[in-house]
């Protein structure tokens, strides 16, 4: 049968079931709620697995309480979901162990990450926690770019790096906080060493 | 209520449970590692100088490169699309710690199948890959071969690549001394397509078994002759 002779069937478009887009609800640890599309969630391995395991229907999503993300605040989560919505449907990079790929920051990501350093580090942490590979890549690249062309002294200021002395002091303080007797033992050891004793015991 | 509980043992990302300020120092080592991986060699080198803990961190991150060529005056390192050129004609001894660091973290993806072994003492450590044309080691200026070749550098890339010093050295031989011509040359560089092979240079294949001390001795021997 030629195409011209094929019977024409009137289709009632209203009768075709239209698949509704599902929007999941998430809640940050400061009780801010976000609605995120199913496709956007696929960028996060952690969230994707979670919603798959829960097997929510459209009604469940509306009627049940929002999924709480206990470790991330609203400000950070907003950035994460904005990123996921913009990059929804994109392929997730796979680390095949070969030569590392060059990471380029797209314009949208650059604007999104035009934030203060504290928030940027929170974003890295959130991307890692939620297993969003590409967001982690671009945010790490952004942190790396922050250091570009800086002297070691400038790097200390940018990253708030402690000097060796400050590092040592912090370690000592942490050790003492953990074991208050450690300092006494150390002093006793030093004292015995001064007295010429070979063994502490 | 369903929730994403703490799958990994970590602090909160911001919010009530988080520290006042999240910064580089609060990041777990694996994330610092991921950031260093994205840094250029120069940045890694500078970060390495800030403290012992950062040095340990930077030293633990491998550096992937396609090719490295070390000659008596300079080193070229090709990573993906960019080539870094470091000219150490002057103050050679200052570069030894840098070269030791570089060779220690380097992970080479050299594809040259023609490895010719010589009877060099350093065969124990390295394999030398001789080039078709050899030039005397003492020659200070390397000629640019005909059919000039550079990668597609943009003006910004030019800032990153330490090529200016090398070009400054060869300008009298190749392009004359007119500063105007010299300025136009930099404009042209962006359009050149490939990188000039370093004539007479050797490719040194790093053996990961080598100890840093032996490497230091080798580099001192190689560079020290010209001090």
From TrEMBL, chain A:
Gene3D superfamilies: Potassium Channel Kv1.1, Chain A (3.30.710.10). Residues 169-194 have a biased composition (Basic and acidic residues). This is Skp1-related protein. The keyword Cell membrane does not apply. Pathway: Protein modification; protein ubiquitination. Keywords: Ubl conjugation pathway. It comes from the Eukaryota. InterPro entries: SKP1, SKP1-like, SKP1-like_dim_sf, SKP1/BTB/POZ_sf, Skp1_comp_dimer, Skp1_comp_POZ. Residues 166-201 are annotated as: Disordered. It comes from Caenorhabditis brenneri (Nematode worm). Probable essential component of SCF (SKP1-CUL1-F-box protein) E3 ubiquitin-protein ligase complexes, which mediate the ubiquitination and subsequent proteasomal degradation of target proteins. Regulates cell proliferation during embryonic and larval development. Belongs to the SKP1 family.
TrEMBL record, chain B:
Coiled coil: none annotated. Residues 9-22 have a biased composition (Basic and acidic residues). Residues 24-64 form the F-box domain. It comes from the Eukaryota. Residues 1-24 are annotated as: Disordered. InterPro entries: F-box_dom, She-1-like. This is F-box domain-containing protein.
